């Protein structure tokens, strides 16, 4: 075995200055590795990954919790009460600081966990050739000596010495700072060449802008160029979203106002009221704690984090956090067709050659179907065989078997063509050996065709072409007749045939051949533009996904318009659109028609057209802009490198995780793990649920603060003793409110979330209904607290009992209000509503137990100044809670009536 030049410890040769074969022999990697060899090398060289940025440790997370305005206030209050010698009060306040810090600490930890889990779902992939064929592997599994394929949109997975390049341009800004993509060629360059000039190398982390390439991995992991520079991966994104920032700002602003007001009340009280310093001080501390919504930011953060996790479990991975909010407001979804709305399990079902028409039978990728004519097996047919040869040679897919079932590698459509070639009794394996490929023009969505050049053993060259019929027909003057002779192309006949197949919903491909001069070793696109001989057409069936039909219906119900954007033929697109149940399946706009429209004309049309066919990626950008100009909140899917601008521009850019390029993933804010339209609809539903839960969190927590602070201010103004003491308020806010509010983050979407129109994009969380609810419920709470206190004082003439009654009434109202808030817009007193969810029931039980401890155990009674209550008194508390629920139920009913009356 030749001596290895490269190992993590060994010297680092100038791979760019060696020829590809020298590189291969240095790495003892003459051909693709077997799985065993790859495993051995992986054990030797280690996984191909860079160390991750160390996340901030638990201590830093803890410190972050302490850097909080309310904590400062509480610490200050604890210090003052301690200096005054009120040790119990100081102790309780410190305990509250500990609880608040711990709650924040645990919640932030959970949010971080949710985020880092999704990061791992987006691990980069690499196209690797191993002894048993082409695989899509995790890039971490690459080893030096592996053979890797690159295409436009890929992120280069390791440092690679290129062996073959086809129009390969790579964007290396990450390494060189140069934003222009640089051309790549396999020839060695001078040993002294700087990185930017090492044109035979593709470096890890850079992006393929155009073309295709093949090469051998020379360095992995920390030994790569990018490994030398950064050595670290980007950190996980933070959970900051515009709405959260808005709420943070709100909470901070409110805290400052409350503290200033508290200070004013304190000073005013000292000067004018006869209250003692301690009493006044504790009243102001109580008021401050009562009015600041301390739990709110934490609840909102955890709601978002849970939303992110929920979406990931529905196969939609969020890459940019703010998009969770936007998802719920989506009003138009523009989706690719193939693989997203359809199954991408293709099968050739119709063939046309010369004057003959064939049907192809069979199931999926199984080779046991037949090519038939009028129900009879077709038998040998000269041109059919030539067509099958073209289908097998002008093809990058491979078919293997596992457990007797066919396994495809590469494009499903190409795999279907290979299956067809087998059904036409064509020896696919032998032909690829007899006619090796010398060069190729890879498929490109702009070109809409691909071509391969093959030589037989005598050096005769033939190019085989396949692609969109109009493209291939443009290149042909002749067609091959049934007898194998060349005759003039009957374009009209072929166009009629294409129309017929497309109307049936088939994807139509034309196949052709072009004899090349002896000795030709390169394909030049311009030279292919004429002189080809048409072999025939194939029609492929790609059935719609059943579940997509249902999901589209759901979207329509939710007033979300679904549009299909495809590179396919207009008639094929219409036929599929009809099967899918799109709103307007018969009106189609093609890429060419789109080019002729001005932006204004497009805006006038785009709302009503649901099918866009024969489009190129740049059309997507125009469509996004036009739909946004109509105030749409647009979700757009994409997979290719050229889709990136549209994905970036869309309100929600959605990349395909399976067939999508790395460039598309980077530009997108959401990545679908299964490329399925259903996951988009599910993400929108989750987005709406998250927004609703944020609203519920706010609608739940703010009235508690509101009710408490209004009660305290009212008491102070009326010169009454406080109905609830400062320590009791701390107890309610830190214990029952937090425990109850936490359950809202886990709320499932309400059954009618997808029956309402999308909310407007810039609707504030603190507007309209939520504000009304906060005010209304604050007043209900005020009435409940005072009612309980007055009743307590009047009946029992005992302040301790009256306060205990007021606190328990407040907590009971919170518990019942939780049930009301879970269904903001629909009835809450239903079987489903009353039964709650496991988390609601656990939280409510916990709160009941805590309140019993608070009321009946001596330690709590001494600490918080509470007294045991009688059954009748406890019943009073609960009934007040029930009353709140019933009043709100009535309010929801009236609101619903008013809303319907306004609409009707
Ligand atoms: P979408 O996924 O957006 O629905 P699509 O997959 O139908 O689009 P493209 O992949 O852009 O669209 O393909 C456009 C056209 O190019 C196809 O209708 C077909 O005629 C042709 N085509 C697609 N793939 C190949 C291929 N591998 N070789 C040759 N021609 C192809």
UniProtKB/TrEMBL annotation:
Q: According to the lineage, what is the superkingdom?
A: Bacteria
**Entry's Gene3D superfamilies?**
Calcium-transporting ATPase, cytoplasmic domain N (3.40.1110.10), Calcium-transporting ATPase, cytoplasmic transduction domain A (2.70.150.10), Calcium-transporting ATPase, transmembrane domain (1.20.1110.10), HAD superfamily/HAD-like (3.40.50.1000)
Membrane topology (UniProt) = Multi-pass membrane protein
Keywords from the named record:
ATP-binding, Magnesium, Membrane, Nucleotide-binding, Phosphoprotein, Translocase, Transmembrane, Transmembrane helix
Report one GO cellular component. Answer: endomembrane system
Question: Would the keyword Transmembrane be found if you checked this record's keyword annotation?
Answer: yes
Classification via Pfam families: Cation_ATPase, Cation_ATPase_C, Cation_ATPase_N, E1-E2_ATPase
Designated name of the protein: P-type E1-E2 ATPase
Species annotation: Marinobacter persicus
């Amino acid at each position: 075995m030749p001596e290895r030049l490269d190992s993590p410890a060994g010297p680092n040769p100038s791979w760019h200055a060696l020829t590809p074969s020298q590189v291969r022999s240095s790495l003892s990697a003459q051909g693709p590795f077997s799985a065993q060899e790859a495993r051995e090398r992986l054990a030797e060289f280690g996984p191909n990954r860079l160390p991750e940025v160390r996340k901030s440790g638990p201590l830093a997370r803890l410190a972050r919790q302490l850097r909080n305005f309310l904590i400062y206030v509480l610490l200050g209050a604890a210090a003052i009460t301690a200096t005054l010698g009120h040790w119990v009060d100081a102790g309780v306040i410190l305990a509250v600081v500990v609880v608040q810090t711990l709650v924040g600490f645990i919640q932030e930890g959970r949010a971080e966990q949710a985020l880092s889990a999704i990061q791992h779902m987006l691990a980069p992939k690499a196209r690797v050739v191993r002894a048993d064929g082409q695989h899509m592997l995790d890039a971490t599994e690459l080893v030096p000596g592996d053979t890797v394929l690159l295409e436009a949109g890929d992120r280069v997975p390791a440092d690679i010495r290129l062996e073959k390049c086809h129009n390969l341009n790579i964007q290396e800004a990450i390494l060189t700072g140069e934003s222009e993509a640089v051309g790549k060629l396999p020839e060695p360059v001078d040993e002294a060449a700087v990185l930017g000039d090492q044109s035979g190398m593709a470096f890890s982390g850079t992006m393929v802008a155009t073309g295709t390439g093949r090469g051998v991995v020379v360095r992995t992991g920390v030994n790569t160029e990018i490994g030398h520079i950064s050595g670290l991966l980007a950190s996980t994104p933070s959970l900051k979203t515009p709405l959260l920032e808005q709420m943070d700002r709100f909470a901070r602003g409110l805290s400052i106002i409350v503290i200033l007001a508290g200070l004013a009340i304190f000073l005013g009280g000292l000067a004018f009221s006869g209250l003692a310093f301690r009493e006044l001080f504790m009243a102001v501390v109580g008021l401050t704690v009562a009015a600041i919504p301390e739990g709110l930011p934490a609840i909102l953060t955890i709601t978002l984090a849970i939303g992110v996790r929920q979406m990931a479990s529905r196969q939609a991975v969020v890459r940019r956090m703010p998009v969770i909010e936007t998802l719920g407001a989506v009003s138009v979804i523009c989706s690719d067709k193939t693989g997203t709305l359809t199954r991408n399990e293709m099968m050739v079902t119709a063939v046309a050659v010369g004057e003959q028409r064939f049907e192809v039978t069979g199931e999926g990728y199984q080779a046991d179907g037949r090519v038939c004519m009028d129900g009879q097996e077709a038998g040998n047919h000269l041109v059919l065989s030539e067509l099958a040869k073209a289908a097998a040679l002008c093809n990058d897919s491979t078919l293997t078997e596992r457990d007797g079932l066919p396994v495809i590698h590469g494009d499903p459509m190409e795999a279907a063509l290979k299956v067809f070639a087998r059904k036409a009794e064509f020896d696919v394996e032998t032909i690829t050996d007899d006619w090796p490929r010398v060069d190729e023009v890879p498929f490109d969505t702009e070109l809409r065709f691909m071509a391969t050049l093959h030589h037989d053993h005598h050096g005769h060259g033939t190019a085989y072409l396949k692609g969109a019929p109009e493209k291939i027909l443009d290149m042909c003057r002749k067609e091959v007749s049934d007898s194998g002779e060349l005759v003039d192309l009957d374009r009209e006949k072929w166009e009629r045939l294409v129309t017929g197949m497309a109307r049936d919903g088939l994807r139509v491909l034309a196949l052709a051949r072009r004899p090349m001069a002896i000795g030709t070793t390169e394909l030049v696109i311009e030279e292919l533009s004429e002189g080809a001989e048409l072999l025939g057409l194939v029609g492929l069936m790609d059935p719609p996904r059943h579940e997509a039909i249902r999901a589209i219906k759901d979207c329509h119900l939710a007033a979300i318009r679904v549009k299909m954007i495809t590179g396919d033929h207009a008639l094929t697109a219409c036929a599929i659109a009809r099967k899918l149940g799109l709103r307007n399946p018969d009106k189609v706009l093609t890429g060419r028609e789109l080019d002729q429209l001005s932006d204004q004309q497009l805006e006038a049309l785009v709302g009503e057209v649901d099918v866009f066919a024969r489009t190129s990626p740049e059309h997507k950008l125009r469509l996004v802009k036009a739909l946004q100009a109509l105030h749409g909140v647009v979700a757009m899917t994409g997979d290719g490198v050229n889709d990136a601008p549209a994905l970036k521009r869309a309100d929600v850019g959605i990349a395909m995780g399976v067939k999508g390029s790395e460039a598309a993933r980077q530009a997108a804010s959401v990545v679908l793990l299964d490329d399925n339209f259903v996951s988009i609809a599910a993400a929108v539903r989750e987005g709406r649920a998250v927004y609703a839960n944020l609203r519920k969190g706010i609608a739940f927590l703010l009235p508690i603060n509101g009710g408490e602070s209004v009660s305290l201010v009212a008491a102070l103004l009326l010169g009454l003793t406080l109905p609830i003491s400062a320590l009791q308020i701390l107890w309610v806010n830190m214990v029952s409110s937090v425990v109850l509010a936490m359950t809202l983050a886990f709320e499932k979407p309400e059954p009618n979330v997808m029956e309402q129109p999308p909310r407007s994009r810039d609707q504030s969380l603190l507007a309209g209904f939520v504000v009304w609810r906060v005010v209304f419920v604050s007043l209900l709470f005020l009435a409940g607290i005072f009612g309980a206190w007055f009743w307590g004082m009047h009946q029992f003439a005992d302040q301790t009992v009256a306060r205990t009654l007021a606190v328990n009434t407040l907590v009971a109202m919170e518990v019942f209000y939780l049930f009301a808030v879970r269904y903001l817009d629909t009835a809450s007193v239903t079987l489903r509503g009353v039964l709650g969810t496991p988390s609601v029931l656990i939280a409510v039980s916990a709160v009941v137990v805590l309140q019993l401890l608070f009321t009946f155990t001596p330690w709590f009674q001494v600490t918080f100044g509470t007294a045991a209550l009688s059954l009748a008194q406890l019943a009073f508390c609960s009934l007040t809670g029930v009353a709140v629920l019933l009043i709100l139920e009535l309010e929801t009913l009236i609101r619903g009536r008013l809303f319907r009356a306004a609409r009707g």
